[in-house]
Design goal:
Pfam families: adh_short. By secondary structure, the protein is an alpha/beta fold. Helix content is about 50%, strand content about 15%. The chain has a single domain, classed as NAD(P)-binding Rossmann-like Domain (Rossmann fold, 3-Layer(aba) Sandwich). It starts with a strand and ends in a 5-residue tail after the last helix.
Length: about 260
């Protein structure tokens, strides 16, 4: 049995759940973090059904609350858990023109997608550096590379994750540590993201890839210590388009994909 532990936020569904499966398949103890305990219990049931004997710890935390990262870290410390792999998957979006969307929702989005990610990275990275071992997977998105009208705040949070991750990756090289950090940038993925973001009736929601394919490719890059994963051909095409097309054209494309009126 593997004696290592992985902590995955946003683990009750979607990419987070599929990443938890990958760790469980390799005999990691998995610490599943999400807001709702009943959804965590269902995720644990499915993982136990497929991988018998895996040690699963359920920690319901709402990462939109500023105190949650500190409390989560304190809880894993109190349980005596050494976190060998941290996956910052938790995140959500909101769709619509910025002038029309709900400010409270977007501030909560910034808290989850940016502040909690930075806070948890700070807490667990220091422990990893002290023992010179550990892996961190940060969830970006294809929108990390493009302006995205109708998801302006969400795309900006993912652009932050891109910049933050690449800067810390460089710092880790300068520190000559065995600790690695990987950025996973999925394309439009078949999860409940579009439903939560009120984007079910957009073109983007109709053209998605499987969460399992995204997670497995991202997991492999993480285990290899790679810097970035662009899972599936869809992500690679989107990324290379961002390199050759001007931002104004990219914004027009994204508006057509994300505006609810575009069916």
């Amino acid at each position: 049995m593997n004696d290592q532990t992985a902590l995955i936020t946003g683990a009750s569904s979607g990419i987070g759940f599929e990443l938890a499966r990958c760790f469980a398949r390799d005999d990691y103890r998995v610490v599943l973090v999400a807001r709702h305990l009943d959804e965590l219990k269902e995720a644990a049931r499915l993982i136990h059904q497929e991988f018998e004997g895996i040690d699963i710890v359920l920690l319901p935390f709402d990462l939109s609350l500023p105190e949650s990262p500190t409390e989560l870290y304190a809880e894993t410390t109190a349980l005596g858990l050494q976190i060998d792999a941290l996956v910052n998957d938790a995140g959500f979006g909101e769709t619509g023109y910025f002038s029309d969307t709900d400010m409270a929702t977007e501030l909560a989005m910034i808290q989850v997608n940016v502040s909690a990610l930075v806070h948890l990275t700070k807490l667990y990275l220091r422990d990893m550096l002290a023992r010179n071992s550990g892996r961190i997977l940060q969830l970006g998105a294809i929108s990390s590379f493009t302006p995205s009208p109708c998801q302006a705040v969400y795309a900006a949070t993912k652009a932050f994750v891109l910049s933050f991750t690449e800067a810390v990756q460089h710092e880790l090289k300068q520190q000559k540590t065995a600790v690695t950090m990987t950025l996973l940038c999925p394309p439009n993925t078949d999860t409940n993201f579009f439903h939560v973001a009120h984007a079910d009736n957009t073109r983007a929601a109709r053209h998605t890839v499987s969460a399992r394919a995204v997670a497995e490719e991202g997991y492999d890059v993480l285990m290899e210590g790679g810097a970035r994963s662009l899972p599936t051909m869809a992500a690679k095409v989107n990324f290379f388009s961002s390199l050759v097309l001007p931002d104004s054209m990219l914004a027009t494309i994204m508006n057509n994909q994300l505006h609810p009126a575009q069916r």
